[in-house]
Amino acid sequence: MPKKNIIKSSTPICLWKTKSLLGEGVxxxxxxxxxxxxxxxxxxxxxxxxxxxxxxxxxxxxxxGFVFHLKKNIFLLGLKSEIxxxxxxxxxxxxxxxxxxxxxxxxxxxxxIDSLGRLWFGTMDNFEKEKKGALYCLDxxxxxxxxxxxxxxxxxxxxxxxxxxxxxxxxxxxxxKIKVNKKLNIIKKSIFIKFTKKMGSPxxxxxxxxxxxxxxxxxxxxxxxxxxxxxxxxxxYFPAKNITNCTxxxxxxxxxxxxxxxxxMKKNEIKKFPLSGxxxxxxxxxxxxxxxxxxxxxxxxx
Length: 302
Prior knowledge:
Elements (H helix, E strand, L loop, with lengths): L12 E4 L6 E7 L4 E6 L4 E6 L5 E5 L4 E8 L2 E6 L2 E6 L4 E7 L7 E8 L5 E7 L7 E6 L5 E8 L2 E6 L4 E6 L4 E7 L5 E9 L6 E7 L5 E6 L3 E5 L5 E6 L4 E8 L5 E7 L5 H6 L6 E5 L13 H5 L1
Antiparallel strand pairs: 1-24, 2-3, 3-4, 4-5, 6-7, 7-8, 8-9, 10-11, 11-12, 12-13, 14-15, 15-16, 16-17, 18-19, 19-20, 20-21, 22-23, 23-24
């Protein structure tokens, strides 16, 4: 008999009271035994070593949507209008790629790296009013491809395979299932899940080894887990209202690290959800998919 797809999880633990205005972009580095995340509006990178509990905060010159560790002191950053690879030891910018310089009110939001070592990320209107965001893929040769358009607030993607993934528009409260061909052209796009207003907005996402989708609820104080058929099979409640992003990590890749945000919360909401804006961890009975690093030979082999 095949094992049933039953998810179990621990009560969320607050790892770091960062009081982030807009925590986002959580990533795990096995090499550093560290979780990294950002505060978009405060222009900060925050790094926590899970083994030593050592904490580091790096100030950045632009709003930042995500951060990925590549090797040693080299990190990949998704900034307001720029993809940047930087060596923090000598503060040297190794690569800088402009993004949407013709749209000064746009900024980069969420991003993920797929199994082929490519970077996927979305852009959005920083005022969250106009539908002028897009989904991009930066390939291994540093070519930037426009994959999809007309987003208000893109989040994800979360990968099912090399050519199929989930992606969301938080303002529309829709999670899409998208399939692309080798040229990164969309050959199929459908609505996988539509949130109600009561559920909040779907925000950051990740998939586990069974391709279950773990979705953060912005203004919903929880993470929901959906199986491949779109059926909800698990739910995790948090003492924080705006759950923004999550990723699997830890030594066995079975721990979920979660960012949250204080943005837009009223005093009575903060009183009800006192740990909003902080970093959390949840232990699970499953594992995330194998972690991949952005594969750009010039950087990796230097």
